[in-house]
Amino acid sequence: MGQYRRISATLVIAALAAMAMAVPAGAQRSAPIDAAEEHCVVWASGVDENGELVLGDWTCGSGLSAAIAGGSGIMAFSTSFTIGRHFSSTGYSGSSVTIQGSSACGGGVWKPSGSWNNTIESSYHYCGSSPTRFYDSSSCGGTSKAIYSATSSLTWMNNRASCVRYG
């Protein structure tokens, strides 16, 4: 029981610290991501009428675990699933963005903008047998690459994703 309280207290402290670095709802990070490695988490509360993920506040920091702990808040963290985790460099390195939601992979589209547009080079896949698909076009059309497992390099799609469709 004592260990559970220490873990809970650590999560609460990490969540509060990370929430202090939150970016307003719907906003993308605008600083160049290669200026300093940064890890962000954003909560997707659902899908809008156009099939796009409805994103909340971005929580960012220099450590991936701190950003994940605070990314969806204390209440949502315990009931969230990772929908996608993307990295700015091959081999799951560089800056990252983790998209969490209330379902493991209920579909939806993320249109990376700002410093994340045309930046993704590697990605973890969380959609089971449904692919995560990366598109060169922001309209989710044209050239695309589907992944069905963790991919340490998007090869010819590196730095080209302007739309990501989950499931």
Task: Describe the 3D structure.
This protein is α+β, with helices and mostly antiparallel strands. Helices cover 19% and strands 34% of the residues. It has 3 helices and 10 strands. The strands form 2 sheets. Strands 1-3-2-5-4-7 form a 6-stranded mixed beta sheet. It has a 4-stranded antiparallel beta sheet with strand order 6-10-8-9, with no helix packed on it. It is globular and about 35 Å long. The N terminus is likely disordered.
Identify the notable features of this structure and list them briefly.
167 residues, six-stranded mixed beta sheet, four-stranded antiparallel beta sheet, 3 helices, 10 strands
Give the topology, please.
Elements: H1 2-19, E1 22-23, E2 39-47, E3 53-61, H2 64-71, H3 73-77, E4 81-89, E5 93-101, E6 109-110, E7 122-125, E8 132-135, E9 144-147, E10 163-166
Parallel strand pairs: 2-5
Antiparallel strand pairs: 1-3, 2-3, 4-5, 4-7, 6-10, 8-9, 8-10
Helix pairs in contact: 1-2
